[in-house]
Amino acid sequence: MGEVLSSLPLAAQHEHHHGGSAADLFLMQQSSGTSANPAALPMTMLMTQAGRWHFMAHGFATFESVQQTGPRGRDQRFSTNWGMFVLQRPFGRGSLLLRSMLSFEPATIRNRAYPELFQTGETAFGKAIIDGQHPHDFFMELAAEYARPIGRRGLAFVYVAPVGNQALGPVAFPHRDSAMEIPQAVLGHHFQDSTHVAYDVVTAGAQYGPLRFEASAFHGAEPDEERWDLDGGTIDSASARLTLVPTDRLTAQASFGYLTKPEKLEPGDAKRWTSSVSYSVPFARGSWASSAIWGRIYKESHDSTLESYLVESSLRFLGRHTISARFEAADKDELFPHFHPTGRIERPALPVPTFRIKALTAGYTIDVFRRGTARYGIGANRTWYRFPEILEGFYGESPKATTVYLRMKM
Fold it and tell me: Do the beta carbons of residue 43 and residue 84 sit within 8 Å?
């Protein structure tokens, strides 16, 4: 058996365990699906070896207490959590990866959603979730991937997942280092990275030097409310992504996806565009990670186009302190129940009220205890909102949200 490593950049962990294989490094840098954080990113994880198999485990859990002001504000205690487990080994001229990601949020988030002002997307008890965030499914990812070098600078890969993440969008917020210490979901989640849990995903791609191109086919519907099972369905949607990795510190991507009937309560298809840049700088006893993300979605059901913007940053210093901030602006058209046309859409869709919501979140986390590769911390953040004046009768003049949490990551 091998030893345990923690808090090393991915490239250094790879060099220690794998001896420099380009295919191994490519697979190890992935966060979920085939999306990747910057390779310079310091990551704490459990790593061990048995024969030619390498085992890696990485996890994150928070126990949160949220308090919100305003007429629509609610208070609740819950836990967000996930664990990733990876087996990897050389196979032929390349490398094989088997990955699972599991979450117990269906059990640790009651009433099928936790409170988050102005958040929308998916359903609970047959109704659209408004001012709340749905839990992740128990099976967030079950995937196999094979990568093989081609020539001196090229590489090809194939990814297959009954449940997984297709080539669409940036690294999802639960796995982005710039977002790790802000545990609540981003308001633009369903514009940017909500498809990180999708079904019957098949992705193929190639990389040459700093450029990577990949395309996916998958089932377009979002997960249903039964969070413990595997949904699945006909492969009816597609996406493509171009990624640029000029240095170990920087990744950038642009992607497009055509989603067939993604929303349970909205008929019609959707188109999604995203672009993002992530930058990570390690330094003595700390790191600085930042991301800028744009997302746009066209909804056939109401013939409307919505956009979202996000900038977030996380600064870790003196080995145990983290300051985080996030600013976002997102168009919201689901804050109030409204009519959805049924059947085939052959006429102009009905307009729905759309509001530009802005939110600023700032927080602080301190690690208070370490054991092996695990870090236990306590933190808090506060969110301020700006929105059109017409919404003040529903949300109050200046609603705020305060989140206090215990955090464990490994």
Answer: no
CB-count exposure of residue 271 (10 Å: 0-12, 13-18, 19+): middle
Q: What's the pTM?
A: 0.92
- Residue-wise pLDDT for 16-30, tens only, equals 444 458 898 889 888
Contacts of 397 (CB under 8 A, 6+ apart): none
Give the model confidence (pLDDT) of 237-265 as tens digits: 999 999 999 999 999 999 999 999 998 88
**Among candidates 55, 19, 30, 146, which has minimal Cα distance to 93?**
146
Burial label, 287 (beta-carbon count in 10 A; 0-12, 13-18, 19+):
buried
The pLDDT assigned to 410 comes to 86
**23: Cβ contacts below 8 Å, ≥ 6 apart:** 94, 95, 147, 148, 149, 155
Tell me the β-bridge partners of 150.
Answer: 154
User: What domains can you pick out in the chain, each with its CATH number?
Assistant: 8-409 (2.40.160.10)
Write the pLDDT tens digit of every residue in 101-130.
999 999 999 999 999 999 999 999 999 999
What would the 3-class secondary structure string for the chain be?
A: CCCCCCCEEHHHHHHHHHCCCHHHHHHHCECCCCCECCCCCEECCEEEEECCEEEEEEEEEEEEEEEECCCCCCCEEEEEEEEEEEEEEEECCEEEEEEEEECCHHHHCHHHCEEEEEEEEEEECCEEEEEEECCCCCEEEEEEEEEEEECCCEEEEEEEEEEECCCCCCCCHHHCHHHCCCCCCCCCHHHHCHHHCEEEEEEEEEEECCEEEEEEEEECCCCCCCCCCCCCCCCCEEEEEEEEEEECCEEEEEEEEEECCCCCCCCCCEEEEEEEEEEEEEECCEEEEEEEEEEEEEECCCCEEEEEEEEEEEEEECCCEEEEEEEEEEEECCCCCCCCCCCCCCCCCCCCCCEEEEEEEEEEEEEEEEECCEEEEEEEEEEEEECCHHHHHHHCCCCEEEEEEEEEEC
